Amino acid sequence: MKRWLSKSLKHKLSLLLLIAIVLPLLATGAVSYKIATSATEEKAKQSGMNTLRQIADKLEFVIQDVENMSLFIIGQREVQAYLDNDREDVARYTLNVGFLTNLAFSKKYISNITINSVNGYPPLSNTTVLYSGLPDVLRKNEEIYRNSTKWWTPLYENQTTEGLKKVVSLVRPIRNVNNFKPLGELSISLDEAEIARYLKESGWEAKGFVLLLDANNRILSGGESAWLNRPVSEPFPDIGPMAEASGVLNYGHGDGQKTILYYTLPSLNWKLVGFIPTQIYTAQNVYVLTVTAVAVGISLLLAAGLVLYFIQWVTRPLTRMTQTMKDINPDEPIPTYEVKSSDEVGLLLHSYNKLSDRIQRLKEQVQLNEAKKKEADILALQAQINPHFLYNTLSSIHWMALMNQDRQIAEMVGALSDFLRFSLNKGEEFCPVQQEIAHAQNYAYVQSIRFPGQFEMEVYIDPAMLQQPMLKLLLQPLIENSLIHGIQKKQEPGFVYVHGELSGARMKFVVEDTGIGIEADKLREIRRQLAWTGNGAPAAKTSYGLRNVHQRLLLHYGSEAGLTIDSEPGKGTRVSFSIPVLEEPA
C-alpha cells in the first residue's frame, strides 16, 4: 500500500479525497438512520395513543349513557309505584318489564337491566336471569357499595336464557322520590363481549392487543379469556406502575419485547392499555436502513466517480509531461503544452515550454491544430452523448433533493425526467393511452411549478381506453397551446380540461381551456391553414404545435382524424380529434 501511494500523486490525492468524502457520507447516513428510526417509533406511539383516546371516547359515551339511563329509570313513575305499593301489582309488573325491554332493545352493549325490591316483590328485568353473580360481588364489597350513590362492580358472570355472559354492572339504590325511603336496587349490566368488540375493531396494530383495566388494575376486557378478572400483573409480571393519566412503558426483552401505551378514562379511573410488539418497529427500521444504505451507496459511487474524474483531469498534464520527459531527446523537437491555468501546474508547464525555442516557428501551428482537435473532440463528444446520461443526472438531482428534504424540487425533476424519457421512447411512435396521459400530466406538473397558481388541469379518461395504443405526443402540444395562447394571456387563473371517451370503434379526445379564446377572424384563418393540402398558395404559418399534431393525425389515421377547433372570445377554446381503435400500431 505504501509503495502504491509513493509511486503516484494521483493515487495519493484519490485516497485522501475519497476518505474525506466517505467518512462524512457514512456519518450522515448513520445520523439519518437514527433520526428516521426514532421518528418511526414516535409516530407509531402517537398513532397508538390517538387510538386509545378514540376507544376511551366510545367507552365514556357508553358509561355516561348507562348512568343517565339509571337516573331515568329510578325517576320513572311506574317503577316507583311498583316498588312502593303495599302488595304485588301484576299489571305494573308487566308494564315495567315491557318498559325495560324496550329501553335495552336498541343498545347491544346492555346485557340486562334488573330492579330488585326491598319488599321481596318479583324482580323487574328485560331478560330472564337464571343465575347472577351480583349478590356475591355485593356481599364482598358491601362497605364500598353502601357508602356510594352509584358503584361499578368488578367483572362477574350472569346465566341468562341467552347463555353465560361476563358482565360489569352499574349498581345504585332506588329511593322514594318524595320521602327518600329505600325501595330497591337497580343494576344495569354491560356485556363484556361488546366491550371486547370495541377493542378489537378499534384499528389497533394487528399483532398487538388492547386491555381494559378497572380502578384496581384487574382486567375487565380484551386479550385472552383466561386473563379476565385477574390482576394485569399476573399475565404480565413486572409491568411497572401506571401512575400517570397516560404514558408509555417498555416491557420484556428480545423477541418478546413490547411497547405499552396506557390511557385513563377520567370518569371511572379505568385504564386502556395497548400492547405493540417491538418487532413492528424493527421491521420498519430494516426498511429505513435499506433505503438509507441505498442512498448512501449511490452517493458514494457518484462521489467516487466525480473524484476520480476530477483528479484525472487535474493530473493529466503532469502525467503527459512526465511520460514525455522520460524519453526526451534534445536533437528532436520538444512538444509544447497550452497553459490554461496560473497555478503550480500552469507555471510548471510554462517553464517546460521555454525549452522549445528551436521549434518556435511551429508553436502557433501546433497550438492551432491542438485547438481545432479539441474543438472537434468536444463536438464529437457532444454528438455521442447518450440520453441516459441526462436521465442519470436528473435522477441524481432527484435523490439529492430528497436527501435535502426539498420534495417539490424532487417531484419536479422526476416529472421532467419522465417527460424527456417518454419524448424519446426508444424511437417508437405509438404508446398506450395511459402513458400519453401520464406524459401530459408530467408536462402540466412542471408548468404548474414554473407558473404557480395560474392554472389547474383536470383529466377525465374512460378506463376502457387506458391500454389502447395511440400515436404519442398528441395531447401535450394541445395543452401547451392552451396554456401559452389561452390561460397565460388571461388576468386570472384558468382551467384546462382533458377528456377521453370510447365511442364504438373510435376514441375521442378533447382539450378545453377557459382562456381568452380566439377571435372569429383568427379562428377562420387557423381553420383554413389546417385545411391546406399543399395545392395553391401556401398557408401562413400558424401554431407549430397545432399544425404538427394535425399533420401527424392525417398521416397516421387518415382525413377523419384531423383537429377540430371551436372557440368563443373571452370564454375559452376547445380542440378535439377522433382516432380509430387499433389492435396493433400501424
Automatic annotation (TrEMBL):
Organism equals Paenibacillus tyrfis
Where do the coiled-coil regions begin and end? 352-379
User: Where in the numbering of this chain does the Histidine kinase domain appear?
Assistant: 471-583
- GO cellular component, as recorded: plasma membrane
Report the principal subcellular site. Answer: membrane
Would you tell me the protein name for this molecule?
A: histidine kinase
The UniProt record lists the keyword Cell membrane: yes
Q: Can you give the residue ranges of the HAMP domain?
A: 312-364
Keyword terms of this UniProt record:
ATP-binding, Cell membrane, Coiled coil, Kinase, Membrane, Nucleotide-binding, Phosphoprotein, Transferase, Transmembrane, Transmembrane helix, Two-component regulatory system
What EC number(s) would the UniProt record show?
A: 2.7.13.3
Pfam families, per database record: HAMP, HATPase_c, His_kinase
Q: Which residues cross the membrane?
A: 286-311
Tell me the leader sequence span: none
Localization recorded for this chain is: Cell membrane
**InterPro entries of this UniProt entry?**
Bact_2-comp_sensor_kinase, HAMP_dom, HATPase_C_sf, HATPase_dom, His_kinase_dom, Sig_transdc_His_kin_internal
Question: Which is an annotated GO molecular function term of this record?
Answer: phosphorelay sensor kinase activity
Q: Per the record, what are the reactions this protein catalyses?
A: ATP + protein L-histidine = ADP + protein N-phospho-L-histidine
